Structures are given as structure tokens and as C-alpha cells.
């Protein structure tokens, strides 16, 4: 589990690929990556313990380096009892490198768990999301974002500005076996 948490630092850098020029030279040999079909689905709610900060894409590595050790320490001490994967939540990312947004890094925990000092606890409700499953190295995750947001636009959906990366399986930043669900939260339907 600790390897997953530490490796997510590298995984998060994949979102930075969205802001890079398409003309960057590709490595000679890239591990295989795959992007599943985009689905719109209502995902079950969960309890989420997290730490949060304001950052920009230009300063994202500093923010991750600040937040992730807090998650590790709380888990190592037993103050957090995870029952699910690590989740990175982005609030208001625009793709502009100097535009501030909120980054939450946390883990799915038992309901009514205790909250370690410096942590926030949230009951994430069941939400409608556009989702895609990405399998592969961090260097190619932009394929998943492009497919997800391309399909959102094609369907005329309007995301809320909250996006998540849920790390379902992790080996290392270059592994083609990594599995990440990317979620773009959509507004609730009337009556929900």
C-alpha cells in the first residue's frame, strides 16, 4: 500500500502531460497503454479522509511532496484505516499552468472513522460521473483525459469542475499494468 501511495506522486504528473505541447518527442519504445470506453454512471458514495492545498500546475510537484507524506504518516501510525484506494481530487483545474486550483489527496476510509490532526473528512455522495479506465504508464495518461473530455464535449455534457484519479492498481510510473479510473463529476439530475 505504501508503494502505491508513494508512486501516486509520479502518477499525478500525468495530468501535467495535458498541458505540454503535442510536439514533444516520444521515447523510442513506449510501454503499451489502453484506454477503455467512456461511461456515464452513478458511483456509490464513500468516506474520504484527505489533506488539501491550493496549488497551480507549475507548483504541483511541491504540493504533492507536501501532502502525500501526511497520508503515509497517518496510515503508518494507524490513525487512518483505509478500506479503498488512494484518490486525487482536483477542483477547478483549467489547464492554465499559473491558475490556482485546489488539490485534495486522500484515501477511502471506514465510515465514522476518526480524523487525524490536519485532515479533513468528507462523505462523498453518490455522484453521476463520466468515467474512463486507463491502464498504462504515467507518460501516456493524457490519452485517457483526451478521450474522456472529448466524449464529454461530443455528448454535450457539462462537468462540474471536479475531476478525480482513483488508483485501482499500481506498480510504478512506467508500468503498463497500472490501472486508474478517471472521473469527471457531472451535475446531478433533477430530483437526485
Tell me the number of helical segments per DSSP (H or I, 4 or more residues long).
Answer: 3
| SSE class | alpha+beta
**What is the 3D form?**
globular
CATH fold name, please?
A: Multidrug-efflux Transporter 1 Regulator Bmrr, Chain A
**End-to-end span in angstroms?**
35 Å
Assign the CATH architecture: Alpha-Beta Barrel
Beta fraction of the residues? 25-35%
Helix and strand run: HEEEHEEEEHEE
Name of the CATH class: Alpha Beta
CATH homology group: Regulatory factor, effector binding domain
Question: Which short descriptors sum up this protein?
Answer:
192 residues, alpha+beta, Multidrug-efflux Transporter 1 Regulator Bmrr, Chain A, disordered N terminus
Structure description:
- The protein has 192 residues and is α+β, with helices and mostly antiparallel strands.
- It has a single domain (2-20, 31-185), classed as Multidrug-efflux Transporter 1 Regulator Bmrr, Chain A (Alpha-Beta Barrel), CATH 3.20.80.10.
- It is 24% helix and 34% strand.
- The protein has three helices and nine strands.
- It has helices spanning 2-16, 60-77, 142-154; strands spanning 34-35, 39-43, 46-55, 82-91, 101-109, 120-124, 127-135, 162-169, 179-185.
- Strands 1, 2, 3, 4, 5, 6, 7, 8 and 9 form a nine-stranded antiparallel sheet that branches.
- Helix 1 (2-16) packs antiparallel against helix 2.
- The chain starts with a helix and ends in a 7-residue tail after the last strand.
Amino acid at each position: 500500500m505504501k508503494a502505491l501511495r508513494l508512486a501516486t506522486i509520479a502518477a499525478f504528473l500525468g495530468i501535467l502531460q495535458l498541458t505540454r505541447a503535442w510536439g514533444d518527442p516520444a521515447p523510442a519504445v513506449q510501454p503499451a497503454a489502453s484506454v477503455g470506453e467512456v461511461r456515464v454512471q452513478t458511483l456509490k458514495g464513500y468516506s474520504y479522509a484527505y489533506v488539501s492545498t491550493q496549488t497551480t500546475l507549475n507548483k504541483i510537484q511541491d504540493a504533492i511532496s507536501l501532502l502525500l507524506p501526511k497520508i503515509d504518516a497517518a496510515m503508518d501510525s494507524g490513525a487512518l484505516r483505509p478500506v479503498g484506494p488512494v484518490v486525487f481530487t482536483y477542483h477547478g483545474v483549467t489547464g492554465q499552468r499559473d491558475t490556482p486550483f485546489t488539490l485534495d489527496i486522500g484515501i477511502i476510509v471506514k465510515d465514522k472513522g476518526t480524523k487525524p490532526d490536519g485532515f479533513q473528512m468528507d462523505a462523498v455522495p453518490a455522484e453521476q460521473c463520466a468515467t474512463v479506465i486507463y491502464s498504462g504508464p504515467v507518460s501516456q495518461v493524457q490519452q485517457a483525459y483526451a478521450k474522456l473530455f472529448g466524449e464529454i464535449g461530443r455528448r454535450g455534457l457539462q462537468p462540474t469542475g471536479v475531476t478525480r484519479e482513483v488508483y485501482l492498481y499500481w506498480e510504478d510510473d512506467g508500468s503498463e499494468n497500472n490501472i486508474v479510473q478517471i472521473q469527471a463529476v457531472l451535475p446531478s439530475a433533477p430530483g437526485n
